[in-house]
Amino acid sequence: MKKKWSTKKKVITAIIIIGVLSLAAAVLYIALKPEDPIVTQIAEIETGDITETFDTTAIVQSANQDVFEIFDGVTVKTVNVRVGDNVKKGDVLATFDTSSLNSLLNEKRSAYNTAQKAYNDYINGAKSASSQLDGISAQIATLNKEIANLEKQVNEEKAAKKEQTTKPVTKPETKPEEQVNEDDLKELREALKEVLGNNKMSDRIVDRLLSPESATAQMVDALQALVDSATIEMPSFDMSALDSMTSSVMSETEKLLIEKEIQLVQFKVQEGVLTTQSTDSLKSVYKTIADSARDSYTALSAQVDVLNAGWVAADNGFVREVNIKAGETVASSSSNAGQQLDVTSILASVTSGNYDVSKIVSAFTGQSQNGIVLEYYPLEATFEISKYDISKIYMDQKVTVTSADGKKYNATVNYISAVAETSGGGLDINALMGSGSAASNTLTAKVEIEKADRSVIIGMDVELSAALETKKNVTLVPVEAIQYDNESGYYVFKYNEDETIITKTSVLVGLFDGTNYEVVEGLEKGDKIVRAPSITMKDGQRVIPG
Fold first, then answer.
1. Which of 58, 118, 463, 497 is the most exposed place for a label (fewest CB within 10 A)?
2. Has residue 242 got a pLDDT over 60?
3. Exposed, middle or buried, 492 (CB in 10 Å: 0-12/13-18/19+)?
């Protein structure tokens, strides 16, 4: 017999069943409920013309600068411009009183004349020395033969005298006041050798003059007097002054030998001097001095003429610097005004062999300073070309330059370097879009900006754009609609208006103008796409145009 459920159990069981069914229905509803559509902007594909551009930043530079220099001692009469002023060709910038430069100009003219005369004298001396050299060489050869013969006679005389002498020759006794100081004698020997050239011949001459027989106090004093009157450049002894002192200790043949040897020393010194002069070894130095003196004089003369006429703008431009004031007399901190140019000392330093060509040249340079600096139009802008864009930029190409305030100027490529250099990179739109690199070896290029005005500031950057290629009536897609991933490449989300869903669609892109891409494949005119997809959008998602 079946047991019947009570009414209470039936109610509880019914409630539980209903609850389970309700929960199951809720789960199924949540699982099968369609996703809420996303509200997004939809764009319709259109066709049109597109021009690809090369876009980058460039730094403005001066293509032509004019520096007006002013010399120490010049008085400024008037200054007619200020920094930043625009100037036109022919405008007078400043006027001056140059009367104080007349003495400096005369000094530089005199220095030039002196230096030019020294150069001419050196050239003439070299020619004369060359012609004299052959004669001196012949005399030296003759003297060498005479000296050889005399040395032979002297040796024979001494040998004969030695055979006739049975007793040793002793040095005559001298009075106490005639005693020779050994230190004085040594010093005299060294002095004689120095004058005679410190060689074997000088040793022989000194040994004969100061032999034990002839080294008396009177002889030493006489030789010291001759040393004091001689020069290294032209040693000369008057042997007649020594005749009375040497007659008892030196034969006539030996005295003649000494005279000939001293003559030979003199001729050898002359030969050395003439050889140096004839080789023109210092010709270039003398020429440098003369040319520097001439250039210094002509430069100052030209500057005086310019200052007398006043400074005048050679072209249209603007004022970069003004370093002078009306009424002032210019004087630099390193001024040498009033100091004369000592050309004589310069020439003397060359003659002595102690000279520095760079210092010689700088000695003729006058003191000056920048008075006014102008920047002339047209200005230039410098930029870098990456290896990806080398084929896009060429000489004489027309480009557009945009200044910081949005003003546009026409410009022309006027320089492309032949050698690439390492660059830190700059803001290049093409590089950011995948066609270039932000840091690589680059070529430096320049453009000349036409009709630039004060909106284009030297040292600041400008935007540069060059039109590269144009296509007409192509399919255009906004840049923000194009997406990219490694799996699909470039793609868009195409909108199905009937089903209100989006489809991930791969596209092949072409030209890019910074705003739109050319789509070569994947879309047609009239197709609708999501204008700016979010990162969470996915294929097949429902959207609502909004």
1. 497
2. no
3. buried
3-state secondary structure 300-316: HHHHHHHHHHCEECCCC
242-to-239, 252, 284, 360, 472 alpha-carbon distances in Å: 5, 12, 46, 48, 116
- Structure tokens belonging to residue 506: 């791969």
> Which residues, including other chains, have CB under 8 Å from residue 316's CB and lie 6 or more apart?
86, 87, 88, 89, 376, 377
Give the CA distances from residue 52 to residues 237, 386, 466, 469, in Å, rounded to whole numbers and listed in that order. 97, 17, 9, 5
pTM, to two decimals: 0.51
Contact 481, 534 (CB under 8 A): no
The count of C-alpha atoms lying within 13 angstroms of the C-alpha of 19, restricted to the half-sphere facing its C-beta, is 6
DSSP 177: G
Collapsing DSSP states into helix, strand and coil, what is residue 72? coil
Dmax (CA) for the chain in angstroms is 190
* DSSP letter assigned to residue 210: T
444: left (phi over 0), alpha (psi -120 to 50) or beta: beta
- C-alpha 504/C-alpha 496 separation (Å) is 11
Whether residues 246 and 298 share a domain: the answer is no
Residue 221 in any domain: the answer is: yes
Contact predicate 68/370, CB 8 Å: yes
Q: What is the CATH number of the domain that holds 311?
A: 2.40.50.100
pLDDT in tens, 496-535: 988 999 999 999 999 988 889 999 999 999 999 999 998 8
Asked if the structure places residue 170 within a domain, the reply is no
Domain that residue 362 falls in: 68-101+285-373
Q: Going by DSSP bridges, is the β-strand pair 489-496/483-485 parallel, antiparallel, or unpaired?
A: antiparallel
DSSP 459: T
Q: Which of 483, 488, 485, 466 minimizes the C-alpha distance to 517?
A: 483
CB 180 within 8 A of CB 220: yes
- 395: CATH: 2.40.30.170
Cβ atoms of 370 and 323 within 8 Å: the answer is yes
The partner residues of 150 in beta bridges, in order of sequence, read none
- Residues 44, 527: contact at Cβ < 8 Å? yes
Taking the chain, what is the end-to-end CA distance rounded to the nearest angstrom?
71
pLDDT at 201: 63
Q: What are phi and psi of 176, to 5 degrees?
A: -55, -35
Q: State how far the alpha carbon of 23 is from the alpha carbons of 10, 14, 34, 130, 236, in Å.
A: 20, 14, 19, 129, 139
Place of tokens 């020594």: 242
Bridge partner list, 410: 400
Kindly state whether residues 508 and 487 are assigned to the same domain: yes
Q: Which amino acid appears at position 493 of this protein? A: F
Contact 38, 333 (CB under 8 A): no
Kindly state whether residue 61 falls inside one of the protein's structural domains: no
Q: Phi-psi category of 327—alpha, beta or left, where left has phi over 0 and alpha has psi -120 to 50?
A: left
Residues 160 and 259 occupy one common structural domain: yes
The domain total for the chain is 5
Q: Where are the alpha helices (DSSP H) in 1-101?
A: 7-32
Q: 461-475, pLDDT tens digit by residue? A: 999 999 888 999 999
CA atoms within 13 A on the CB side of 247: 5
